[in-house]
Each structure stands twice: as structure tokens, then as C-alpha cells.
Write a structure and sequence with these properties.
458 residues, alpha/beta, four-stranded mixed beta sheet, 16 helices, 42% helix, binds pyridoxal-5'-phosphate
Length: 458
């Protein structure tokens, strides 16, 4: 029987007052919330005392894990000193300056400056506006279209949600807006032709991208945006040579390369940034999530000096850059980000992500490759997905797609593990602090849930 909550309980008041993001509201009215209460390391605990291994690090984001006192102290100290200041009209604050310098120094070579926002979506909206502004500034007002990818994820605001290439982010929201195009998803397992190698598949996708540019007119295409490894679309690691080929086409037609590292930034794939791992040389880089381990909202857009100069000239012509958020460069979020980055460095969490990431990838494959439900195990570093199929040989999915994934997600909670189901792909992205013993526990709980799913599917 469902719990019969006291009308004053948090449970009842959530049902009465809240409308949840990314939630089926009617289902929520039936089943109610799981109320999270506290966390430590890779574990979180609900208000009933149940323990969960947070195998998705919240939303791919709690890099240093839960209960990190140093971030609490950093926030409290900055709160006491200067809890808020903005960065409009020549104002600055110490933590935001230090963070800007550190980000420029630690990210790929050509990136020279930072603009701060609060979420990945805001950052990507900022990017779109800056790209449009830039092309207006240099006298190319027709060069405005941005190419994103089917199954890519860049956020949910009107503009960033348009970049996102997932149907549920567009449906009934009247998206996408004009000037946003989507090219093919680089998922070899699903979309390669019979016998096509990764390199051949990458060449075919690059050819499709080039054809799209030619069909639209290269003079109308401003930028290409992609996650080095797709996250929310199902953890899709690009086929070999994909990024080199896409970048070469961008350079050929003077198209800006935007790397959205909101998930992959700060060690997730085993290198500080996934751009390094995949040889991406971006003109614009987008960061968020692990920048503060999501203890506070923060995002950053980094860009080259070549991109900055005409924009700066245009602000002088107009008199201002008419864009910015009340909380851009928030001093408390910046102080938390700086402390978070110090922890990452002191504890060698990039190294940990590489080493334990390798262990995770190996363990997942050795434990589950032969499981009757498992079609593909993919991933790199500390991000992975296990795709469930009805038939391994033909790769046939279950019908309806996503029903088994939804069962797996729910059942995982009963087994003490939180993953993310993207249709029937089960995404794993634990905190960067995870140890090999905790990976063993993750694999154990995942395996129990997988066996439950097998029994349920028969
Ligand atoms: N970009 C990527 C790659 C993301 O994964 C996300 C969120 O998951 C976003 C952008 C949007 O970030 P936010 O939810 O903070 O708006």
C-alpha cells in the first residue's frame, strides 16, 4: 500500500505544491517523491534512511562527492566577506577574477577569456548570442545558423533547447527556433551500416555534415556545437577520427567549433577536458556542473582572442555588451569553484578518473558483456552506458522502447543504486572520487538490477 502521509509531511507538501522538472506529473501524483536527505562520498540517503550509491553523481555533476566540508567552509567564508556582487559596468570580485585566470590557464591553449553564467543552458544561450553578435560585428549578418546533432543535449531554454536534439525537449514547446540545424548522431552501434568500420562511419557522417553545409550555403553556417562524448543522449562515444573530420570541415568553411563540456569537463573522461582526449581545438568551450561539483550553480563560456576582439570592438561601438546575468561571476559560487578545483588537484582526481575509469570500463564489460539483455557497453573514463536489447544478435530493442529502462531505473532504487535511463540505455557517471571497491559495489548492485530486469522482461 502507498504511504498515507500526514498532510503536513514533506511528502504531502511536495505533492501539493511542487511541479517537478523532467517528471511525469500525473505519475508523480500517484507515486510521490523520494526525498533525499543527506550524502557522503558516493552515497546518498533518503529521509527513510535508505542508502543509494549515486552512480550518476546527481546529474553527472558531483565530482568531489557528497559531504565535502571544504566546499562548505569556502562558501561560508565568502558569504561572510562579500556574499554577492555583480560584474556589470566594470565591477569585479576577487574569486571570479581568480577563477577566470585559472580556467583560461587549465583549458586548451587558444582559449583566452571567460564569461560566467549559472547553468549549462544559460551558457549555451550566451554562446548562441555571442556567435550571432560576432558575425554581425564582422559584417556577416547572414552567417547565423548553428549545427547541432540529433541526440545531442545542450540544455532546455528556448535557444539551448533548440540545440538539443531530443524529441521530448521540442515536442509541444514549439521548438526548435529558426537557424538551428541538426546533423547525424555518431553512434556506431546503432547507426553504422553492416560491416562499416568506425573510421568509415565517421567519414560518412562528416560527408553528411558537409552536404548539409553546401545545401544551406556555407555563408549561412556560423558554428557547429557538440559534446565530445554525448551524455544525456545516451553516453555516445564518437567513432575514431570523427572529431578530426568534423573539425576539418568546420575550418574549411570558416565555421566556429563549440565544445560543450558541461558533462565531460574536469576529468570525466580521464583527461582534464575531453577536448584533449579527442583532439578537439575549440573556438568556444562551455563548462558547468563539475566546476563547483554542483554545490552551487555556475557555468562558464571560454573563447579565443580572435573571437573576443571583434566583439569587444562592437561593444565600444554600441556602448555596451547588452547581455549578462544578475549572478554572472557570483563570488560565493566562484569561491566554491576555486576550492573544488583545489581539491581536484590535491587529490589527483583527474588521475583517479583515468585509473578508476579504466577499472570501471573493464569491470562493466567483464561482468555484463555476456548477459542476455546487454547489447552494448560503451564509455570512456568515468562515464558509461549499458544498452539493453531484446535480441543481442539483431540489436533489436524492446517495444515500446524505454519501458524496460524505466523499470530498471525504479528497480535500481530498490537495489540501492541510482543510474539514469536514457530510453533503454542505462547511464553511469559516478563521482570522480569513486574507489575501485566502490566500483565493485556499483557493479554488484547494477548486476542485481539487471537480473531483476531480465526476470521482468520474460
Ligand atoms: N550541456 C550539456 C552537455 C549538458 O549535459 C547539460 C545538462 O545536462 C546542459 C548543457 C544544460 O545544463 P543545465 O541543466 O545546467 O542548464
Amino acid at each position: 500500500m502507498k504511504p498515507q502521509p500526514n498532510v503536513n509531511s514533506q511528502y504531502a507538501r511536495d505533492l501539493t505544491y511542487a511541479f517537478h522538472p523532467y517528471t511525469n506529473a500525473r505519475a508523480h501524483e500517484e507515486r510521490g517523491p523520494i526525498i533525499m536527505d543527506h550524502g557522503k562520498g558516493v552515497f546518498v540517503y533518503d529521509d527513510q534512511g535508505n542508502e543509494y550509491l549515486e552512480a550518476l553523481a546527481g546529474l553527472w555533476s558531483v565530482g568531489v562527492g557528497y559531504g565535502e566540508e571544504r566546499l562548505v567552509t569556502a562558501a561560508a567564508e565568502q558569504m561572510r566577506k562579500l556574499p554577492y556582487y555583480h560584474s556589470f559596468a566594470h565591477k569585479a570580485n576577487g574569486p571570479a577574477i581568480d577563477l577566470a585566470e585559472q580556467l583560461v590557464k587549465m583549458t586548451p591553449e587558444r582559449l583566452a577569456r571567460v564569461f560566467f553564467a549559472n547553468s549549462g543552458s544559460e551558457a549555451n544561450d550566451t554562446v548562441i548570442k555571442m556567435v550571432w553578435y560576432y558575425n554581425n560585428a564582422i559584417g556577416r549578418p547572414e552567417k547565423k545558423k548553428i549545427v547541432a546533432r540529433i541526440r545531442g543535449y545542450h540544455g532546455i531554454t528556448i535557444a539551448s533547447g533548440s540545440l538539443t536534439g531530443l524529441p521530448w525537449n521540442h515536442r509541444d514547446f514549439d521548438l526548435p527556433i529558426a537557424n538551428i540545424l541538426h546533423t547525424a548522431c555518431p553512434h556506431h552501434y546503432r547507426f553504422a551500416m553492416e560491416g562499416e568500420s568506425e573510421e568509415e562511419f565517421a567519414s560518412r557522417l562528416a560527408g553528411q555534415f558537409e552536404q548539409l553545409i553546401l545545401d544551406e550555403g556555407p555563408e549561412t553556417i556560423a558554428a557547429f556545437i557538440g559534446e565530445p562524448v554525448m551524455g544525456a543522449g545516451g553516453v555516445i562515444v564518437p567513432p575514431k577520427t570523427y572529431w578530426q573530420k568534423i573539425q576539418a570541415i568546420c575550418r574549411k568553411y570558416d565555421i566556429l567549433v563549440i565544445a560543450d563540456e558541461v558533462i565531460t569537463g574536469f576529468g570525466r573522461t580521464g583527461t582534464p577536458f575531453a577536448c584533449e582526449r579527442f583532439d578537439i581545438d575549440p573556438d568556444i568551450l562551455v563548462l558547468s556542473k563539475q566546476i563547483t561539483s554542483s554545490y552551487l550553480p555556475m557555468s562558464a563560456v571560454l573563447f579565443t582572442d580572435a573571437f573576443y576582439q571583434p566583439i569587444a570592438d562592437n561593444t565600444a561601438k554600441i556602448g555596451t555588451f547588452g547581455h549578462g546575468f544578475t549572478t554572472s561571476g557570483h563570488p560565493v559560487a566562484s569561491a566554491v569553484a576555486l576550492e573544488n578545483l583545489a581539491i581536484i588537484q590535491e587529490r589527483d582526481l583527474f588521475g583517479n578518473a583515468a585509473r578508476v575509469g579504466e577499472y570501471l570500463q573493464t569491470r562493466l564489460r567483464s561482468a555484463f558483456s555476456d548477459h542476455p539483455l546487454v547489447g552494448e557497453i560503451r564509455g570512456v573514463g568515468l562515464i558509461a552506458a549499458v544498452e539493453l536489447v531484446a535480441d543481442k544478435a539483431s540489436k533489436r530493442s524492446f517495444d515500446p522502447l524505454g519501458r524496460l529502462g524505466a523499470y530498471f531505473f525504479d528497480q535500481g532504487h530498490k537495489r540501492g543504486i541510482i543510474i539514469r535511463n536514457v530510453q533503454d540505455s542505462m547511464a553511469i557517471c559516478p563521482p570522480l572520487v569513486i574507489t575501485e571497491e566502490e566500483v565493485d559495489e556499483l557493479v554488484k548492485r547494477f548486476g542485481q538490477t539487471l537480473d531483476d530486469a531480465l526476470a521482468w522482461s520474460r
